[in-house]
Fold this sequence. Notes:
Layout: H1 8-23, H2 30-39, H3 44-67, H4 70-100, H5 105-109, H6 112-129, H7 139-144, H8 158-169, H9 171-195, H10 205-216, H11 229-260, H12 294-308
Helix pairs in contact: 2-3, 3-4, 4-6, 8-11, 9-10, 9-11
Amino acid sequence: MTRSNTDPVARTFAISSTIDARFDKPASGWRRRLFTVIFEADTRAGLLFDLALIAVIVTSVLVVILDSVQSIRDQWRSLFNAFEWTFTILFTLEYIARLACVNKPMRYALSFYGVIDLLALLPTYLVAFAPELAYLIDVRVLRLLRVFRIFKLSRYSVEYRALVSAVAASRRKITVFVGFVMLVVLVMGTLMYVVEGPVHGFTSIPIAIYWAISTMATVGFGDLVPKTDLGRAITSVMMLLGWGVLAVPTGIVTAEMARRGPNEDAEPLPIAGRGVLAMVPPSAPAAPARRLTPAARRRALAQHRRGGR
Length: 309
């Protein structure tokens, strides 16, 4: 009896096999044992490693959030700095271990998770070893990059991979839809620039396009408001159109997930096959089996009987 596709063991085995093929699992030695612990969760050591890493990631993100509060940062600055360097050292050791235990380290370094792992530790080193960067870019930007550590959690969720696979399969439809939205925004923004004009705040076409985007997204900040009756009529159409705009991408992704069905395995992220964050087109599905017509089935049955005699 074959295992169901919804069996967690079967799904874990399929994902592990894909990882083995992408990054080339070592044949033997300490690198193979380290690979089993880091990339595979079907052993006790691998499960404990994943749980410990998840705890460190969540704690580090929580420290970043608390460090952004001025009153808390002033009181606990030294403790937060100690925590930050501890997390950075742990993530650095993890990153080096992942590169060391695979036969194709560059493929992992250029993969989606490899880039996320690098972003998780890079900001601290940039500020510490290159203080002159503070004059080129706000230090807060580098500190906020540490929030990318939360994306490290995505490798532990099969459901996340299923959602990303559905979005990736729908990317062409979504691209066409976004192009249509941009066309509508450009036309309606230009029309509002002609109707309202600089007198009512629509001083240029880019400003009018900004108004069209905020109106279609049903945000309506209120900094640009049409004053003429024709402008208000156009605004009403834009707001009603915005409801449909919000619903279409959701419907596309939902239809793709429904088409795949609950028993279909989530494919690993098809990323980094050709460079950093590059999308790889999925392999073509196998051709469906040809169905025999009743006449062909009768002929095949007759030939089988004659052969039996």
